[in-house]
Design goal:
Elements: H1 5-29, H2 32-87, H3 92-174, H4 178-191, E1 195-199, E2 202-203, H5 212-220, E3 227-228, E4 235-237
Parallel strand pairs: 1-4
Antiparallel strand pairs: 1-2, 3-4
Length: about 240
């Protein structure tokens, strides 16, 4: 295949555009924010799980407080009933039984109130844990949102750079002869890098030096011959730097 040397040099611009597009894609896949988001999501979920545990413990203890409150209310109501019976003039035997029951109720009420106080103190501590867990969840979600925002900004910048570079690439590719462009695209699909500058004896695509025989063949080729690297298959673009 033959192509004007000036046209062949345009392949270097095309290769540079493709290299930049590859870097953009690599950058998109390896944004540090992507890993940070994964960690932040795990942290946020862990904090949510901790909140659920704290809320469950608080709810369980809250039910226990209400149960004790009900029992205390029942004891007090029974005590009031007994006192009302005594005030109404109960018989001697009934009066003795009522007095005994009042003593029992007083002891039971004391025990229940002690339990109630202890459980309420525990509930206060658990309520503080719930508040702390809610704050931790909010902080973790805020951190996640901040990283996601940075990721979105970075992706927008990359999309802008990609669109600009693709536009430049299209202009270069459309200016090439059809057969040369097709060869370039075929090599790029197979090898990744399709063209490189020959610098001395080194291929600019694979960075490998050509052996003496291959180098002589390249140098003896006509200026408009399209020559390729024997190592990587890329089109070797020859300029003054190639001598």
């Amino acid at each position: 295949m033959k192509a004007d040397p000036a046209i062949q040099r345009r392949l270097l611009d095309l290769a540079a555009a493709d290299a930049e597009l590859n870097r953009v894609e690599h950058r998109r896949r390896t944004l540090p924010e992507l890993e940070q988001i994964g960690q932040a999501e795990r942290d946020a979920q862990a904090k949510r799980d901790e909140l659920v545990v704290a809320q469950t413990a608080f709810s369980d203890l809250d039910r226990e407080v209400k149960r004790l409150e009900n029992e205390v209310d029942q004891v007090r109501a029974r005590e009031q009933r007994d006192r009302d019976l005594m005030a109404a003039g109960a018989a001697a035997k009934q009066l003795e039984d009522l007095e005994h029951e009042l003593q029992t109720l007083a002891r039971r009420q004391g025990i229940l109130e002690d339990e109630q106080l202890e459980v309420m103190e525990q509930r206060e501590a658990l309520e503080a844990n719930v508040t702390k867990s809610r704050e931790a969840v909010a902080a973790a979600e805020e951190r996640l949102a901040e990283i996601q925002s940075r990721r979105d900004e970075a992706l927008t910048d990359l999309e802008t750079a990609e669109a600009r570079r693709k536009g430049e690439r299209d202009v270069i590719a459309k200016a090439l002869p059809e057969n040369l462009a097709a060869l370039y695209e075929r090599i790029r699909a197979q090898r990744g890098v399709a063209a490189g500058l020959l610098q001395g004896a080194r291929c600019g695509a694979c960075r490998i030096e050509l052996d003496r025989t291959a180098l002589n063949e390249v140098r003896e080729a006509a200026a408009d011959d399209v020559v390729r690297c024997e190592e990587c298959g890329a089109i070797l673009v020859r300029t003054r730097e190639s001598r």
